[in-house]
Amino acid sequence: MKLSYATGVLALCSSLLFNACQPAPKPMFEVSFSADLEKAAFDGRLLVMITKDTVTEPRFQINDSKDTGILVGKNVAQWTADKKEYIYASDLAYPLNTIGELASGTYYVQALLHKYDTFQLANGHTVQLPMDQGEGQHWNTSPKNIYSTPIKINYNSNQQGPIAIEITNEIPPIPPVEDSKYIKHIKIKSKLLSEFWGRDMYLQANVLVPQGFKKDSKVRYPLMVFHGHFPKTIGGFRTTPPTAPKNDTIFNKRFGITGYKYIQQKEAYDFYRKWTSKTFPRFLVLQIQHQNPYYDDSYAVNSANLGPYGDAITYELVPHIESLFNGVGEGWGRFLYGGSTGGWEALAAQVFYPKDYNGCFAACPDPIDFRAFTVVDIYKDKNAYYQKGPFKQTLRPGQRDGKGHVKTQLIDMNRREYILGDNSRSGDQWDIWQAVYSPVGENGYPKPIWDKLTGEIDPEVANYWRENYDLRYIMERDWSSIGNDLEGKINIYCGDMDNYYLNNAVVLTEEFLESTSDPYYNGEVDYGNNAEHCWNGDQENPNHISRLRYNTMYLDKIKARLKRTAPKNHRLKNWGI
């Protein structure tokens, strides 16, 4: 419809008058940083955290619990010491809607800059992301990030000027972990990942070598790939007796017990004694450091946004480790296990590389069927956050305790991530799923599976997820071609009261696996009655014990598998096959 010239001028004048009458944005915080910290102009995410106490610094009090602090953030570009950045009352916050909703009162405030690097990707996009600095991709502990000392404020919602915060501290570098007799730390430059990211990229490995290892020996060792979150070194292995008091009264909230430090140390020492005993099976344990600009690990698969981590791990890192420490060097001598993220990775690596590994033990895996992406069916639901009826909408839960009581909602977990970093840059759980599973968006960042603020699901992205990363769907779709190579290799375990509802996807996957024929999958799916995250198949011991025994608890099943599949001239030691 055409407007007359006079009508157009009137409309323009009305618009200008309306905008002129609007109050200017109210600055609540004025943030600067000390010139002593300036090495170059900084890009990144400026965060301001607000808490009611300083039991720990505010940067350590942002979480999904009811006790979380308040978080507000903004992107900054080419920030220099002579420039002030402002946080306005209208800026989105967590768990508040906007930071301007903050009530008058006494608070502790801290600012932090999560620095971004610029990457020229092989796909032609230029993106800004936080480069891991050896900490495993955690914004509040990442070296080179700069932050302020917490200050106490008496905030009045009617105050006229902004509260000044000066950033004066830089998080120091993390020293590397030294090798020991049994634990080695290996780092390789990945050709595949370096080509994708447009800069040198590395894979690192923590390796537990067997008692009596000699490079010139003819003995060969199976490789146990223990998948999971960023491991600084091999954990749960201790060469000296426990030093923690057996009867200490420190209460562990997660497990509801006291004396857990002693239990951990005793389990680690007991493992060492088994490891070095004369009859214990000899094998290699590999824990991978594959932190990246999106998360503390890559999910061990090839991804449009993260690059070819699956190929880099399976075809670059694993053979390198086997060559250094006399691994078998063939698929029949490699096994996969892990819990949660590690459980998904163990199953995914087995499915995507069916001949390169000889069995997976996937405990409490992240969603392996996206019809139950925790509590969302991404194919049928239109909104991730709400179940909607004609007159009512109900929030979907994000986490529950062992009695089924909801601890937080899905919408709040995603909002916290959005405030930490837009474009999947929070370094947290929902964003890494999106970064791994999604296609590349027009802006070079992962295309969202749903709108972070509203929860509206994109069906095109959901379809991409299904075809590329829905493990149950892929197994069912491709069973005729991969089933023979997966027979006897798939084992899945989950508590039926998993805190993140991960058991729902396991049930759906089990239904498919039990329907298989020619071949029948011939593995195992088991559930822990009333067991929380992360139950791993131990029907005899509580979770606080079994979670410390990953490196030994599947050995009997691995031994049975090796007996069926290892060649006669296997040259393994202490396996009795």
Description:
The chain has 577 residues and is α+β, with helices and mostly antiparallel strands. The protein folds into three domains: 26-170, Immunoglobulin-like, CATH 2.60.40; 183-369 and 471-565, Rossmann fold (3-Layer(aba) Sandwich); 372-467, no CATH class. It contains 13 helices and 28 strands. The strands form eight sheets. The protein has an eight-stranded mixed sheet with strand order 13-14-18-15-21-22-27-28. Strands 2, 3, 5, 6, 9, 10 and 12 form a seven-stranded antiparallel sheet that branches. The protein has a three-stranded mixed sheet with strand order 4-1-11, with no helix packed on it. Strand 27, helix 10 (503-515) and strand 28 form a beta-alpha-beta unit. Helix 5 (341-352) packs across helix 9 (471-486). It starts with a helix and ends in a 12-residue tail after the last helix.
